Amino acid sequence: MSLEERVGETKPVKIEGPYRDNSGLYVGYGSIVMGNVRLGNNVIIGNGTYIISENSRVVIGDGVEIGDNNVIKVRDYAPENKDRDIFIGDGTITKVGVVLENGVILGERNYIGDYCVFGRNIMIGDENRFNQLSNISKNVKIGNKNTFYACTIGSAPQGQVHEDEGTSVEIGNENLFREGLVINRGSRLMGIDGKTKIGNRNKIFSQTHIGHDCIIGDDNEIVSGTFLGGHVIIENRVRISGMCGAQQFVHVGDCAFVGGMVGLEKNVLPYSRIEGRPTGLHGINFKRLEKLYPDENKFREVYGELKRVFRIVTDKNIDDKTLAVKIRELASEHAIIIADFIDKLKRNKRVYRFRHESREE
After folding, report:
1. What's the pLDDT at 361?
2. Residue 249 CA to its chain's centroid (Å)
3. How far apart are CA 267 and CA 50, in angstroms?
4. Mapping DSSP to helix (H, G, I), strand (E, B) and coil, where does residue 337 land?
């Protein structure tokens, strides 16, 4: 049963710390709890914290620990903030200097570190960990068991022409986000649905920027210093090495590998290995294949299929327009996967095909 379904009556309260009652509620020195607030059992509120609501509600579950100098405040005077409640689920811990604004919903057993800030309209699942200085800006939906280190999620698109009001970020489960990471909200200009989306079990390391309207699939590893322009798509089980960049609308297929300090201007075929300066196709990502197919016979079968595909890919007598047709003639499972990838490319249809590709191609 969700926290919202379990919420009982909220009634006006005014508590000034220090205060203690027989439900296990403790309010520390200099703290104020005032307005339409529901307090669960065994709630501990530190010193100098403000929990204030007006027409909306602040609902705090059982076993919640709120640290010193938190600000949990529903500002009802602005029309966009009207009826945006704050919910804090059972067993959640907030540390020093945490700020929660209108429309923040925290599930159960979340940990919010020192000086984290949560803006308007944030929905968070269970068992997430936000280490100190994490900034969840606005219009963000987060699943379960994610870990954040001093990163910024849901900031506005970094472009003057992009309209971002009402756009959002959606994040799945069990992702790792390291220090200095920035993920922008989607945009209304050219955006399909105005959402930037991150899937499940991704590891995205420090000083990485994920631009507006990007889509990141599952089980990817994006190493430090990578910059993804707007509308970039990274599918599943991809590794992007450090200090890489991808221009807008680039699409990276399943199980691809991108080497360090590479600048991506074209699309990256599934199972391919892209490296070098100038950037080019350096074969099949056989290391990923070894992990996917530990059985040697299956590995050899799949590797053989892909070798036949990439013979066609690297044939300079076949032009880009007929490439997918030629690959599809092989009729193997992985040939069809790669042909489908090429066919679904939209705005940028170029793909890396050769070891040394000139910028003029």
Report:
1. 41
2. 18
3. 51
4. helix
Question: CA quadruple 199, 137, 228, 251: dihedral positive or negative?
Answer: positive
d(CA 115, CA 201): 26
Please list the rounded mean pLDDT of every run of 10 residues in the chain (361 residues).
55 90 93 92 96 86 96 74 84 97 94 96 97 96 98 89 80 98 89 89 98 96 97 97 96 98 97 94 95 95 97 96 96 97 94 76 41
What's the distance, Cα to Cα, between the start and end of the chain in Å?
57
Q: Kindly tell me the sign of the dihedral angle through the C-alpha atoms of 266, 271, 275, 280.
A: negative
- Identify the structural domains of the chain with CATH numbers, from first to last: 3-293 (2.160.10.10)
Sign of CA dihedral 116, 184, 79, 107: negative
**What is the pLDDT at residue 76?**
61
- Would you say 156 and 164 are in contact if contact means Cβ atoms under 8 Å apart? yes
DSSP letter, residue 351 = B
Give the dihedral of Cα atoms 277, 283, 284, 288; nearest 10 deg: -40
Q: Hey, how many other C-beta atoms are within 10 angstroms of the C-beta on 267?
A: 22
Q: How many Å apart are CA 359 and CA 361, to the nearest integer? A: 6
Residues in CB range of 159: below 8 A, 6 or more apart: 187, 212, 230
d(CA 279, CA 257): 12
15 and 45 Cβ atoms separated by less than 8 Å = no
Give 156's DSSP letter.
Answer: P
Burial (Cβ within 10 Å: 0-12, 13-18, ≥19) of residue 359: exposed
Q: Is the CB of residue 89 less than 8 Å from the CB of residue 110?
A: yes
The pLDDT value recorded for residue 306 is: 97
| Structure token pair of residue 133 | 């200085």
